[in-house]
Each structure stands twice: as structure tokens, then as C-alpha cells.
Amino acid sequence: xxxxxxxxxxxxxxxxxxxxxxxxxxxxxxxxxxxxxxxxxxxxxxxxxxxxxxxxxxxxxxxxxxxxxxxxxxxxxxxxxxxxxxxxxxxxxxxxxxxxxxxxxxxxxxx
Length: 111
Known about the structure:
Blueprint: H1 2-26, H2 37-54, E1 60-63, E2 74-76, E3 89-92, E4 94-97, E5 103-105, E6 107-110
Parallel strand pairs: 2-6
Antiparallel strand pairs: 1-4, 3-6, 4-5
Helix pairs in contact: 1-2
């Protein structure tokens, strides 16, 4: 059990370092972000949540590549065309149990 906990902590730390490095590489014009406690806390919480979602059985999946509106999986954004089923933009992804399981949280889309 102790080894499993250590592996989880190491994976989260490595994930946090990778995400931070990507943010810093992308926003290189803002070097002070490296010392921003709020950003570091936010990244830490995001990595831990992502890890927790991925180790569930069945794991949770984030889906954002749908082309057609499905009322079981999506909610339309208020500016959407209610007559169209073609998804023009995903504002928030769908969260499901497993790849084809129950929808835990509906995605928000623009049609």
C-alpha cells in the first residue's frame, strides 16, 4: 500500500512539473508566473483532480470531439441555433464513466 501511495504522489509531482513547464514555455513573456503561488496551487489541484479521475474504475473520460448535438450528452449555449445539430464549438467537454458509459456531466456546445 505504501508503495502505491508513493507512486501516486510521484506521478502527481511529475505531472505538475510538466504542466508548469508547458505553461512557462507558452507564456515566456511572463517570467514572474514561475513565482505565482495562485497559479502553482491551481496547477497542483488540476493535476490531482486529473489523476483521481483517471484511476477510477471505470475511469472517467473527457470527450470534446463530437460533431453532432446529442441531448443526452450536451447542453446548448444560449447563442446556439436550436434548429441545428452541427456542433460549431465546444465550450465545456462531456464527462462520462468509461469511453461509452453514463454521462456524468453534460458538455456545453454552440450549434
